[in-house]
Amino acid sequence: MGAHSVLKIRHERGAALMGVLNVTPDSFYDGGRYLGETAAAHRVAELVEQGADIIDIGGESTRPGADAIPPAEQVARIEPAVRCARQAGVLVSIDTTSAEVAERMLDLGAQIINDVSCLSDPLLARTVARYSATLILMHSRGAMKDMKGFSQYPDDGYDDVVQGVLGEWRESRNRALASGLAREDVWLDPGIGFAKNARQSWELLRRLPELAGEGVPVVVGPSRKSFIGSLDGSKPEDRLGGTVAACLLAMQRGAHVLRVHDVASVRQALLVAKQLASNPSEVSRV
């Protein structure tokens, strides 16, 4: 899926929708729900029916403190889901930091690799480049196992969180370009909640136009995260309203792709926002 495809979808609906499929026992919200081929296949069908443009499939949890999963185990977890998604004709993204996992899934027809380590392993970029695929570089600092907790990060961890994220992401992007990837095939995810506290995550969302000004597709993943719970103490299962609101804000401020668990709800919100923006005269007569 190239940047031109994302721009087309963004023009039609406001943002492309990336549905989350975690084939893990321990992800923070949906861990354990989609283990096994039958459950994963059902989730793929559900996401397609809800209108997902991309399905992001991961076999390794990215919650704080999560252990790394060997590549062979990741492949065993996600391969059935990838095959189902390809049969359904939907674009497939693989959530992995492993070049070995990426190569196997790109062989099966995945088009996007979603790297939450901000290119800790340059071999991953070289692998993606060989397949002329897309690489999402999500800003983060350090391994998931070393993250202290949800939305826990020092207030003074950044002089300016937006400029800090951009600077570190650009360094990783430059390594990816040196590995053979084209500029339009390296996308930016600011990493909401990863090595950021709630205040820093809110600041990234408020100043999203600065990130969008980088001139590459921007992926934002606010779905049910703890920065929403910082407002009202809600648990992940009670953060749908906040997720939809954050997605609408992100879309309005320049996000190209929204990574979400609740595709149907976010899609409906985007359609309403699009209708209100494009037909103000119709709204005024209601």
In short:
The chain has 286 residues and is α/β, with parallel strands linked by helices. The chain has helices spanning 3-13, 37-50, 71-87, 99-107, 122-130, 161-178, 198-206, 208-212, 226-232, 240-252, 263-278, 280-285; strands at 16-22, 54-58, 91-95, 112-115, 134-138, 186-189, 219-220, 257-260.
Relevant terms:
286 residues; alpha/beta; eight-stranded parallel β-sheet; 8 strands; 47% helix
From N to C, what is the helix and strand string? HEHEHEHEHEHEHHEHHEHH
Q: Into how many domains do the coordinates divide?
A: 1
- What Rg, in angstroms, do the CA atoms define? 18 Å
Low-confidence stretches: none
CATH level-3 fold name? TIM Barrel
Give the C-level CATH assignment: Alpha Beta
Q: What is the count of helical runs?
A: 12
**Count of strand segments:** 8
Strand order of the largest sheet: 6-5-4-3-2-1-8-7
CATH architecture designation: Alpha-Beta Barrel
Helix content: 40-55%
Reported for the largest beta sheet, the result is:
8 strands, parallel
Strand content: 5-15%
Report, as a whole number of angstroms, the end-to-end distance. 39 Å
